[in-house]
Amino acid sequence: MIPLAVAIVVGALLAAAVVLAVVRIVLGPTPADTAVAGDLIFFAFVGLVAVFALLFGIAAVLDIILVASVLGFLSVLSLARLLQGGRR
To answer: How far apart are CA 41 and CA 19, in angstroms?
Structure first.
């Protein structure tokens, strides 16, 4: 378990990252910018879930976070390949 003050600070930093990512989605000139910002929002959400799991002491959520992180990583690889037109 982590102290409440630490959870609040981490939550605020993750919220700031999401706000900046939304700005990047709106202003992003290329599809790659939008993809990276979407990925940042996904992993910020995963981080927020991890903070809540640590705050409340729920160990089972960490397994779900592990699976979500692997799926997020694979989706980024797929999107990068799609943006490059299938080239390696």
So the answer is: 9
Q: What is the pLDDT of residues 36-74, one digit of tens each?
A: 888 899 999 999 999 999 999 888 898 999 999 999 889
**62-71 residues labelled b (16+ CB within 10 A) or e (exposed):** eeeeeebeee
| pTM of the full structure | 0.82
Q: For 84, list phi and psi in degrees, rounded to 5.
A: -90, 5
Burial class (CB in 10 A: 0-12, 13-18, 19+), 56: exposed
Contact between 44 and 17 under an 8 Å Cβ cutoff? The reply is yes
